[in-house]
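Lipoprotein: structure, please.
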Amino acid sequence: MRLLVSAAAVSWLIACQSPSAPPEQASAPAAALPIPAVPAGPRLLHEAAARRPFSSRTAPDQFRLQLRGDSVLTGTLHLSIVSAAGDTLLSERFPAQALLDYGLLQYGEHPTRAQREAYVRERMDQFFGPGQFRSPAIKPTEQYVARQSERGVWEEVRQTGLPGFFYHLYEEDGRSLAYLPRRRKAVVFRTCC
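Here you go.
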């Protein structure tokens, strides 16, 4: 009787370990299954990049402005600053239309779509020009202006002596950024025209 029970148990174990379907119907091992394609993100339409000292006076950080989407005028801009060590200091998104400003008047009062697109690309290409950077971000003799800054942030930026970066969106949305070591990120320390 024990032999019969042992034989039944062994048969049951073998049955549990063997595939339930005949070999021709057994599923393929996971490694052989096709890997689904990763859907592509929005199409990269234009890009501007620069390496400049920002979070350090010696090691340059990577500044990047990417335009992604279906068209230049309806796309989204992604502004990022990554330190030389690979830390993301800033990541912002805004519509491409944010680069349209009074400078567009160079094309007249009613610029064409092609002219507006060209202007967005031109603004991107100039976004990280030398005139957009200042070292230090706040000069030692510079006076605090309450309507443009929050006092604590302004003082902290001033004390670091690190470089600053300025850009503007739309027609009068100017932003000055600087790196704050205590926060380990870039902050807006001044907004102005």
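Notes: The longest strand covers residues 44-53.
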